[in-house]
Design brief:
The chain is an all-alpha fold. It has 11 helices and no strands. It has helices at about 5-50, 60-85, 90-95, 100-105, 115-125, 140-165, 165-190, 195-225, 225-235, 235-250, 255-275.
Length: about 280
């Protein structure tokens, strides 16, 4: 049934945003730094138990690539949650999407992609504190822009790590490095709160909703969808995040903020639509 991969991908995106919404609700208990620690450490334990990367010996270039990949992943998670504490979910996800969009546009040689770049810049301009009708926290904007840059680095370093090591091994080791990078600050800031059974249980739910479940669903979708279809559908995630923020967190966006999200989504869809040939074969995971 052709609609099942699409349904699986939509479920994956919904799971990720539900996990982000739950994480934001947990910030009063352990802070964004503490929730980052729980998510990264628990995800690393799950992935290492699954892939057992210690059985594989990696050469120095592969270890370096995995370390850079994991470092970008850890910093991306930390700065995303720090931004999410200060900004609405939909806007945080939309701005963070400019990271992979920048990678796609940098690799492009088409003149039309200048239009998508301009749309993305226009979207960011609509929500800058100096122009917005409902000014956003400047520190939150700084954090999410760092998260976007880390996402771009994560893509570049992840491709290198995947080329030099088995995908599962690279992912597990990368998540372990991410935990080492992102966990200490949370451990210091949250302290004993991280060991509360209720916080641990909810942190595990965040790790599953934000990592284990959506990655599994995306893996199924990747095997059955064309690369172009997959990319275009993923580009709709900022709009889905805004909807989830409204439904689960009661976050209401202004018309100008919705216009900013629309610009970034349109830029992502345009870049994805033109970045892969329409007859491209399904992506193999």
């Amino acid at each position: 049934m052709r609609f099942l991969p699409v349904l699986g991908l939509v479920a994956a995106m919904t799971s990720i945003q539900a996990g982000a919404s739950l994480a934001k609700r947990l910030f009063p208990l352990a802070g964004p730094e503490g929730i980052t620690t729980l998510r990264l450490v628990l995800a690393a334990l799950i992935l290492c138990a699954l892939w057992r990367p210690w059985r594989v010996r990696l050469e120095r270039p592969a270890l370096k690539a995995v370390a850079l990949y994991g470092g970008a992943l850890g910093l991306m998670n930390l700065t995303f949650y720090l931004a999410l504490e200060r900004l609405p979910l939909g806007l945080t996800v939309a701005i963070e999407f400019t990271g992979p969009l920048a990678v796609a546009l940098y690799a492009s040689r088409r003149g039309l992609d200048l239009l998508w770049a301009a749309l993305a810049v226009a979207g960011i301009g609509l929500i800058l504190p100096i122009a917005a009708d409902a000014p956003l926290d400047p520190l939150g904007l700084l954090f999410v822009l760092v998260a976007a840059a880390c996402w771009a680095a994560y893509i570049v370093f992840g491709q290198r790590a995947g080329a030099l090591a088995h995908g599962g091994t690279a992912t597990a080791l990368g998540m372990a490095v991410a935990a080492v990078v992102g966990a200490p600050l949370g451990a210091v800031k949250a302290g004993a709160a991280l060991l509360e059974p209720s916080v641990l249980a909810l942190g595990l739910a965040v790790a599953v909703l934000s990592s284990a479940l959506p990655y599994s669903l995306e893996m199924v979708a990747l095997k059955r969808l064309k690369a172009q279809t997959f990319s275009v559908l993923m580009s709709l995630e900022p709009a889905l995040a805004a909807l989830m923020g409204f439904l689960l967190l009661g976050e209401r966006l202004t018309p100008r903020q919705w216009a900013a999200i629309t610009c970034i989504v349109a830029a992502s869809v345009g870049a994805a639509w033109g970045g892969v040939k329409p007859d491209a074969a399904p992506v193999q995971a």
